Amino acid sequence: MAAPDATLAEYFPKYNPPIRPHKHTCVGLAMEVAKCLKGLEKDFPGISKSMMLASCDENIEDLVDYATFSPGPQGFLIETEKDHVMLAIHVKVDGRPGVFLSDLGYHIARVVTVMADRCYPHTGWFTQSDEPHCRKEYNYQFNTMNTNYVEWHERETRGATVKERLSLVYVAKAYLTAVSVTEKRNIVWDLRSLLARDPKGHLTAGIYFPVKIKDQQFTIFFDSNNGKIRKKLKFDTFLRLQKIPDEVVDEVEQCNDQLHLRDGELLSVLNKLATIMADEEYMVELKEVNDKIVQLSAGN
Length: 300
Description:
Strand content: 25-35%
Order of helices and strands: HHHEHEEEEEEEHEEEEHHH
């Protein structure tokens, strides 16, 4: 454990992040679904041994270079972030190889089937979310140059603007450092959120915000009697609980209920976040650690 007066840069490498019940990132969610699926062992013998955590690198810029550099990611591990985790189960359908992917970290409310030959029951393209302002579509397929990887394609449509993103999931071997690498990496991630979704994965309520040193605000959204509410609020509004306007407290309490939190919990969380965000020295250190990880993963 680092000394009490250690900087974040000194403390961070020595910190061992816990996996906390009911407060899961993608790592904890993958572990949780694996634990639940073990209950199927009686009906599907061998499923427990077939399950594994699979690592994922997001926002791949050069697919050919990444997939053909070596059989797996170990050849250039320092230049990969391994910033996401999901559960994978290798299967064979009438002798045809494939893999089931469960990604609760991205709130995908289905098990995706990826067949090597891309034939039935291959899932293919599907709509992940379809909100008035944004539609997201996903597709998973084995990489033809290196079947150790599954390509994850995302297509995001906002009005007339279409953005595409590519990530790669390594499915050849189990990911053994999910906690010490991915969970730890996500602690200093510069986009934070606390969200609720319905059983189909659709967003229902929550807060999210980019980590900034200046202009610190978050977006809150929830359902009200007047329809869906989505607005931005400043963190410094929550520095002193007794001075928060009554209408803001009412909105936070409505969101709190739809997040299924204890009474007053979201307000307390926002107060603590506001206090942390107001510590400029700490925020600078946090941004520096995150930027250093990004630079290392890019090979800079």
